Each structure stands twice: as structure tokens, then as C-alpha cells.
Amino acid sequence: MPHTWLVVGLGNPGPQYEQTRHNVGQMVVDELAERRSERFRAHKAGARVVETWLRPGADKLVLAKLNCFMNISGGPVANLAKFYGVDPAHVVVVHDELDIPFDSLRLKIGGGHGGHNGVRDIAKALDTPEFVRVRVGIGRPPGRQDPADWVLSPFGAAERKALPLVLSDAADAVEQLIDEGLLAAQQKHHAPRA
């Protein structure tokens, strides 16, 4: 029987943040919507959503970008999950990850928040850490740059060239984990690039 999956791309609202490393989760959700020729529309839970399918006859997807700042993502995610009747195990949160090199992905369910305030707030609001995370590597800042400044800065020129492939891979990973399960997606997307 098909399930409904809530796929949330984390980021901050406003044009000044759109192209920053911290918004890579929203960029991945944009890619998933573009693949289906869908546009986001306002939702009363404080988000913009697309209601679509993995493919016709398969699981339903609710793609979401929140209207709030990342650190307070929990309330809107919990409200969307309640509205669509989505169990936490079918919530997928796509977010940036400092501790993973740029151009790499890691997928997991549950565990700690690793200092990511958006993930921390979602775990608190859902009352469980047992949701899927698609962690898109942005790497650590060079030298002594403050990580807070790093995540809020735009991708560099070399990164921007590689970014379309990174976003495509992350969108593929989301589709595969929903279609084939987390283990299959980990086995494919945790492998080093050829």
C-alpha cells in the first residue's frame, strides 16, 4: 500500500540566503519538484509545498520548504506531518552537513543532531529523533573562518560548477531511499565517486 512521505529541505527564507551553503536542502527539494514540473504553493503550516508522487501509482510525496528560519524548523515540520498523517519514520529531512566533505552525501535514520540546530528542533517537535536525514556535505571552512559565517556564505566558484551534480545525486538518493529503502540508498550514495 502506498505511503505518504514528507520531504523537507532545510534552509532560511529570503533571497539573501537562497544561494548559501545552509540552503542546500531547499535546493535539493527544488530539484525534486523540477523533475516533476511542479510549483510550490503556500500551506497554512508555514511552508510552501508540492504534493506529487514518486511516480504514478507509487508513494505520495509532499515536498516542503519552510517559511521560518532553520533553527525553528520543528513546529512547521510537526504541523505538516500531522496535517498529511505522516509518521516520523516517513519524514525525510534534507540538510547541509559541515562534517561531510563537499560533493559527498550521507543518509541515516535517527541518531544525534551533530550540532545542527534545525535537526535538533525537528527531533524535539516530533518527539523522536527517528526520522530520515539526507546530509549533503558542505565541508568545513578553510583556516579560521567561523563555521556560522561559512554556512551562510554562497558556494565558491568551483563548488558552483559541481553543485548541479551534487543536487541531482541528493535528489536521486531521496527517490531511491523512498523506492528501495535506506540501505540500498546508503550502499549507492555512500560509495566514493568514480
TrEMBL record:
The active site is at H22 (proton acceptor). It is found in: Cytoplasm. GO terms for cellular component: cytoplasm. It catalyses: an N-acyl-L-alpha-aminoacyl-tRNA + H2O = an N-acyl-L-amino acid + a tRNA + H(+). Its EC number is 3.1.1.29. The record marks N12 as: Discriminates between blocked and unblocked aminoacyl-tRNA. The keyword Hydrolase applies. It comes from the Bacteria. Its main location: cytoplasm. GO terms for biological process: protein quality control for misfolded or incompletely synthesized proteins; rescue of stalled ribosome. TRNA binds at Y17, F69, N71, N117. InterPro entries: Pept_tRNA_hydro (IPR001328), Pept_tRNA_hydro_CS (IPR018171), Pept_tRNA_hydro_sf (IPR036416). Keywords: Cytoplasm, Hydrolase, RNA-binding, tRNA-binding. GO terms for molecular function: peptidyl-tRNA hydrolase activity; tRNA binding. The record marks D96 as: Stabilizes the basic form of H active site to accept a proton. Hydrolyzes ribosome-free peptidyl-tRNAs (with 1 or more amino acids incorporated), which drop off the ribosome during protein synthesis, or as a result of ribosome stalling. Catalyzes the release of premature peptidyl moieties from peptidyl-tRNA molecules trapped in stalled 50S ribosomal subunits, and thus maintains levels of free tRNAs and 50S ribosomes. Belongs to the PTH family. Monomer. This is Peptidyl-tRNA hydrolase. It comes from Microbacterium protaetiae. The gene is pth.
